[in-house]
Amino acid sequence: MGSNRRVVVTGLGVVSPIGNSVGEFWPALIGGKSGIATITRFDPTNFKVRIAAEVKNWSPEPVIEAREAKRMDLFSQFALYSSSEAMKSSGLDMEKEDSFRVGVVYGSGIGGINVLEDQVKVYLEKGPNRVSPFYIVGMIPDIAAGHVSMMFGLRGPNYGTVSACATGANAIGAAYQEILLGNADAMIAGGSEGAISPTAIAGFMNIKALSSRNDDPEKASRPYDIDRDGFVMGEGGGAVVLEDLDHALKRGATIYAELTGIGATADSYHITAPHPDGIGAARAMELAVQKSGMRMEDVDYVNTHGTATPTGDVAEINAIKRALGEHAYKTNISSTKSMTGHLLGAAGPVEFIATVLAVKNNIIPPTINVDNQDPECDLNCTPNVAVEKEVNFALSNSFGFGGHNATLAVRKFMKA
Question: Residue 173 in contact with residue 396, Cβ under 8 Å?
C-alpha cells in the first residue's frame, strides 16, 4: 500500500523574523531582507552577544486566546500559529475527514526554555509550592504537537521530534513516512523554537557558536563569507500540510510541490562539530535523491544548512561536492539563514517552505552578506540577489548538534 503512494505539499504556514505569514515571508526572502537586530526579549547589556533574529510585532491572537497563550511557552504559540496558516491554506475541512486519518508530527529542538527559566526562578525565590501547575506541560517539547492536534481535532499519528537543528526536517520526514505507510491521509508537520532567552544565548555564546557582530546586526549572518564568525539565534515556527496525492486530488486541493524523498544519517563524529569531509551529510543528500527516483544531475537548487560558522559552512560545501560531484558547480545553493538567522528546531520547516516556493515560483532566494566569498566555499551561493531560474528539483538540508543529518527532496508537481 505504501510503496505506490505519492506525498504532496498542500498547505504552508510561517512565523519568522522576516514575516509572520507566507505572504510576508516570501517577498522578504527574495528581497534579501534581514530580520536581525539588537535583542529586545531581555536586557543583553552584559552579554558578549547582543543580537538575534526575533519575531517582530508578535501577537498570538486571533489564533490563540490571550488566557490560553499565557499558559504556553512561546514555541507552542509559534507552533499553533504556523499550523493554523498551513491548515487554512490547505483547505482541509476536518468535518469531511476521518479524524483518525489526519495526524501531527511537530518538533522543537529545545522546547519551553522560557517557562523553564521562569519557574526555576520561582522555585528558588518562593519555594516548591509556588511553581506553576502549567510548568511541565509548558516546557516539554512534544506539547506543541499535542496543542496542534487538539486545535484541529486530529486523532491520527501524533508525536514530536527532537534532533537539535534537524528537528523540523525530521518531523517532516516522519510525517511523510506515516503517509507512505498508509497510516494517514494527511499530516501537519513542522517545528518551532522560542529560545531567545538569557540562558540559551549564554550557552550558545559560551561555546563560541554565535556571531558577535553587535554593531552591525543586519550584516552578522554571513554564510560563505570569509569574515563569518558564527550563527545568529533566531526564533519562529514553520508548518506544512502533507497529503497523499490521491486524497489531495479527490478534494481538489492546491498542490504546491511534491515531497519525493528523505535522507537521514548520523556523522558519528563530534557532539557539535560536523564531520569535516561531510560524509554523513553527503549520504543524506544521496538517499533523498535516490528515494526520489532522480539523479544528482537533476538537482537545480540546494537550500543549505549554511549557518555561517567557520567550520560548518566548509563541511557542508564538501558534502555537496561529495554528493553531487561536478554537478555541484552547475547548481545554485543558498542559505536563507543569512536573513532569518538560525531558527534551530524551526529551521528545517521554514527552509523547506522556502525550497517549496523556490520550486513553485522558479526563484532562488539569495545568500545575503556575501561581500568576500571564502575560497573554500567555491560553489554558486546565489550571492546577495535572488535569481530567476527553472527549478524542477531541489534539496533542503538540516544538520544538528549530535551529528544529525536530514535532507528533504522537493520536485515540481506533475500529475503523471
Answer: no
pLDDT band for 29, please (50, 70, 90 cuts): very high
Q: Annotated catalytic, 342?
A: yes
**CA neighbor of 168 nearest in space, from 221, 239, 223:** 239
* β partners of residue 380: 332
SS3 state of residue 275 = coil
Q: How many Cβ atoms are within 10 Å of 88's Cβ, its own excluded?
A: 14
Give the active site residue among 147, 247, 275, 342. 342
Q: Which residue has the cell 489526519?
A: 102
Provide the pLDDT confidence category of residue 1 given band limits of 50, 70 and 90.
very low
Cα-trace Rg, the chain:
20
- All three cell numbers of 191, joined, read 517545528
Q: Taking 90 as the threshold, does the pLDDT of residue 2 lie above it?
A: no
* Structure confidence by residue, pLDDT tens digits, 179-213: 999 999 999 999 999 999 999 999 999 999 999 99
d(CA 330, CA 173) in angstroms, rounded, equals 27
In 16-153, at which residue ranges do the beta strands (DSSP E only) sit?
Answer: 37-38, 51-52, 102-107
Q: 37 with 54: CB under 8 angstroms?
A: yes
Say whether pTM exceeds 0.85. yes
Per-residue pLDDT, averaged over 301-325, amounts to 97
Pairing of strands 404-411, 393-400: antiparallel
What are phi and psi for residue 402, nearest 5 degrees? Answer: 100, -5
Which entry of 147, 165, 247, 377 is annotated as an active-site residue? Answer: 165
* Residue 381 annotated among the catalytic residues of the structure: no
Longest dimension (CA), the chain: 64
Catalytically annotated residue among 147, 275, 305, 404? 305
Q: Which helix (H) or strand (E) holds 189?
A: strand 186-193
- Cell 537545480, located at residue: 300
